[in-house]
Amino acid sequence: MHDRSAWASVAFWAALGTAVFVAGWRMDRLSHQGIAPWSAPGLLPAVVGALMVAFALVLALQTWREGAAPPRGSAADEAGEIDMAGKAADAAGAGAAEPGDSWRGSILATVLCVLFAGVSLGHGWPFQVEAALFILGFTAVFRWPEWRAEGRLARGLAQTAAVAVVAAVAIASLFESVFLVRLP
User: Fold this and answer.
1) Host domain of residue 176
2) DSSP codes of every residue in 104-125
3) Which of 59, 88, 119, 132 is the most buried (most CB within 10 A)?
4) Which of 90, 110, 94 is nearest to 102 (CA)?
5) What is the pTM of this model?
């Protein structure tokens, strides 16, 4: 039987992605104001929603394949006839997440994104600063145990900070130059 928490995560992300896609698709295109179709306000949310559904389908395929993998200690496993899912599980080792962690991680990710987009954004610092702090904090929350176990906290934080700054500037530039959105 397949892992129920993984399938619950698939359903959650597919439903959320579908809702975001439909909401983005139904937004006013502002064609009466001469807005180009590629810069319509609902375009980016619709694309993000579609990507969420696509990644939910990838997660579903991965979950289905892991459910079809031979159990640990089986004859196929001992003979070395193990699929990629089994190799990934071996590579992850003792640091692999428990099945219930997938669901809790999904909820935590959603809460962090809602706090950023719905509470923090536009009520203080410039977008680039808030975006960089969000990317840094979000990544650190989910990677901290791995960094700690590998003894590379400082390196992980430094790399993530560099990526966060570059990503925040690139995102701001994209919104302002391509989507013609004035950021806070």
Assistant:
1) 121-184
2) HHHHHHHHHHHIIIIIITTSSS
3) 132
4) 110
5) 0.55
In a domain, 78, yes or no: yes
Q: What is the Cα Rg of the chain in Å?
A: 20
Same domain, 178 and 87: no
User: In angstroms, rounded to a whole number, what is the distance separating the alpha carbons of residues 171 and 67?
Assistant: 38
Sequence length of the chain is 184
In a domain, 53, yes or no: yes
Each of the 184 residues of the chain gets a pLDDT tens digit; together they read 457 778 888 899 899 999 999 988 888 777 667 777 666 677 778 889 999 999 999 999 988 888 755 445 544 444 444 444 444 444 444 444 443 467 788 888 888 988 888 887 777 788 899 999 999 999 999 999 999 999 999 999 999 999 999 999 999 998 888 777 787 7
Number of domains in the chain: 2
State the Cα–Cα distance between residues 137 and 153, nearest whole angstrom: 13
Could you tell me the sign of the dihedral formed by the alpha carbons of 48, 101, 82, 65, in that order?
negative
